[in-house]
Amino acid sequence: MKSPIKEEGIQINKYISNSGFCSRREADKLIEQLRVTINGEPVLPTARVLEGDEVAIDGERIKNKQRPIYIALNKPVGVTSTTDMSDKTNIIRFMNHPKRIFPVGRLDKDSEGLILLTNDGDIVNKILRSSNNNEKEYIVTVDKELTQEMIKGMAAGVRILGERTKPCFVRMEGSRRFRIILKQGLNRQIRRMCEVFGYKVKTLKRIRIMHIELGNLAVGKWRYLTPAEMDQLEKQLKDASN
């Protein structure tokens, strides 16, 4: 097994994500499964790619970096935010985009709304690394009348999954509807928080990620991020890494 440990070149997982094939995290999994080769030899995570090296996944050569793609999708209920093609409801099959793209983070199968997709593995890693500081806004409807006690309790933070959720913004917008802005993303967080107070979520829609808004984008439709959105995204990610 080849494992060149050199100062020159580029780390194998970064090379793969830069190519647009997948995110760096997914590249690590491929490397662990011995599906990645450099010049025909399987590699370890420490491998680096030098100029002239041929990198392949499952025998298919990685091509030069594609033009970056940044997409905002209004994901419908029933679509799973995974690249696993064995899942017939996966978001890649739903998008049917001609280029290889992958979702940034997740949005539950039974939730709808804004999710970002890209072929830029670097930006995925930056967003996920700084995700605890990125606002995500949702509109939620529940199965019974809301109370001020429930709204205040949600905002103060509740104990789920062995930890207490961070304080957050919550505002009642109807007898059974509220708006919530989170800066963290625990598994099925909003649904679990509601369950603590005896509520069941009926609908959950994400309407904003950071400064990127869903707006009037119809369910199932998508658009490319605007240059202004990309400029602000890059600035926020740069600030978060400082």
Q: What does this 3D model show about the protein?
A:
The protein is of the alpha+beta class. It has 7 helices and 17 strands. The strands form 4 sheets. Strands 7, 8, 9, 10, 13, 14, 15, 16 and 17 form a 9-stranded mixed sheet that branches. Helix 1 (about 10-20) crosses helix 2 (about 25-30).
Classify the secondary structure makeup into a structural class: alpha+beta
- Uncertain segments of ≥5 residues (pLDDT<50)? 1-6
CATH level-4 homologous superfamily of the domain at 132-209: Pseudouridine synthase
Average of per-residue pLDDT values:
89
CATH architecture of the domain at 132-209: 2-Layer Sandwich
* Order of helix and strand elements from N to C terminus: EHHEEEEEEHEEHEHEEEEHEEEH
* Global Rg: 20 Å
User: Overall 3D geometry?
Assistant: elongated
The CATH topology of the domain at 132-209 comes to: Pseudouridine synthase
Per DSSP E runs of 2 or more residues, the count of β-strands stands at 17
What is the first-to-last residue Cα distance?
Answer: 37 Å
Percent of residues in beta strands: 25-35%
**Overall helicity:** 25-40%
What can be said about the biggest beta sheet?
9 strands, mixed
- Number of alpha- plus pi-helical segments: 7
For this structure, what is the CATH class of the domain at 132-209? Alpha Beta
Give me a quick take on this structure.
The chain is α+β, with helices and mostly antiparallel strands and 242 residues long. It has helices spanning 12-19, 24-32, 91-95, 121-129, 148-156, 189-196, 227-241; strands at 10-11, 36-38, 41-42, 48-49, 55-57, 60-61, 70-75, 102-104, 112-118, 136-142, 159-160, 163-164, 169-172, 177-182, 201-209, 212-213, 222-224. Among the domains are: 10-61, Structural Genomics Hypothetical 15.5 Kd Protein In mrcA-pckA Intergenic Region, Chain A, CATH 3.10.290; 132-209, Pseudouridine synthase, CATH 3.30.2350.10.
